[in-house]
Amino acid sequence: MNYKRLIAENLNIDGFTADEIEGFIEVPPTKEVGDFAVPCFKFCKALRKAPNQIATDLQQSVGVIPGIEKVECVGGYLNFRLDRKAFTKEVLQKVIDGGDRYGASDLGNGKTVCMDYSSINIAKPFHIGHLSTTVIGAALYRIYKFLGYNAVGINHLGDYGTQFGKLIYAYKAWGNRETVDKEGLKELTRLYVRYHEEAENNPEMDDEARAYFKKIETGDKECVELFNYFKEITLKEIDKIYKLLDVQFDSYAGESFYNDKMQPVVDELKQKGLLVESEGAMVVNLDEYDMPPCIILRSDGASLYATRDIAAAIYRKNTYDFDKCLYVVAYQQNLHFKQIFKVLELMGKPWAKDLVHVAYGMVSLENGAMSTRKGHVVLLEDVLSRCYEKALEVINEKNPSLQNKEQTAMEVGVGAAVFGMLYNNKIKDVVFSYDKVLNFDGETAPYCQYTVARCNSVISRAGEDGGFDWKDITVNDDEFNLCSVLETFPDVVKNAAEKYEPCYIARFAVDLSKAFNKFYFDCKIISTEKSQTAYRVMLTKATRYALKNALALLGVKTPEKM
Known about the structure:
10% strand; three-stranded antiparallel sheet; Isoleucyl-tRNA Synthetase, Domain 1; Gyrase A, domain 2; Rossmann fold; four-stranded parallel sheet; 12 strands; alpha/beta
């Protein structure tokens, strides 16, 4: 039940609609004051009365509201207290009926959302800096599917550009197939780093690298075979990480896929009079919009990221007819996306307004920024391995007889890394620290996972219940507070989708875990009182459903036992 709406519709305030009143209603900081509050100072100017008087008048005029137990004035506020039993009964029934679909909806039925995320670079290692885009994008993918949307996950592979010419140069100069087959991405990274070290003293190497890349573009057999070989090695190794993270995609169409789709973009820009020459390059002038020109073709005729991204946007619209297309890319690319969205708008694409840059903060190391060229990165594989080892260490210490310890440790370790990236607002910069990621106390995935395991234990010990009669139940503060958190989940999921913020769901999971654990320690769940036991086990089952659903949307698995 939408209690805010119900209250608003039962308040008659001259000059204000129910929609306006609903927008003013607040949730007090403590339940002692009430569950909802109307701040009456909002109406002082229109009614020409003091807030205290307005609150008193409204209290006297408001009738009986279903589900509301008490209405009282506190200062300039009119506070409403819910009928706790009715509220708890309604929430629990809704959660139990929803089960593993509690929080889901058909809000997006018939609508398509494309999501461009992860977008790893071929022949470069999957490092900790890629974790944000990967887990944010994957979480949004699951959230939109949960809300009934047709979600299309796209891994826009970085498989185009001079760096491949550099890698071919390095491979031919210092590499061999046997070592690359054995070492995979580590060897390709070593070759790439060596190229940049050597090129500092031999800048002419860059000319040869550009020539090799040109050969890829023109279909040279040897260069294309090497390019595909590097790509195959990368995807094979990266797929292991994606499986660990439980991340999936519907398309791996990368930059090279749009090689034959860029000329129509150039032609259309010319035909619409948008393309002009500037210092030898072909650009779209954006001075009028306080942006530098968007370069479409360099002076040597080569395309750029912008050219390919414009071609990709048009292709996606034609292929998927999306209602919205999200780009989960670091905020450093803010200008780039503003430019290409504006160019598409100027091209007369009415759907340009449906393109959204979901920006997130950068990840750096405690001793500085990462750089593949300098070999200064923390490999994601190593991070997940360290998290697994730490989790296994904790399990061996606290529950050495646990079955499937290795599997549980992997789920806990990976969950810790994923949750750590999703818990804060996405726009915040992150300084990566093993100590923080591997902290298994407090507002972390292991804390939430352990809460699910605790719920499982309670339900298992309780066995089959015989049900209960609500007239025998008295709802205490801990039970009511737990239900108050449970009730918010459907709105939390919708808000996460609307704001592109998975952190809302991560925080819900922590809040629910805290509320349940307080209930667990303060209330005896299994007792000789059969009705009370059945009721409290129902609360436990509802918590387990909502918590598992929340963690699943984030990509965090929930072991049965811990």
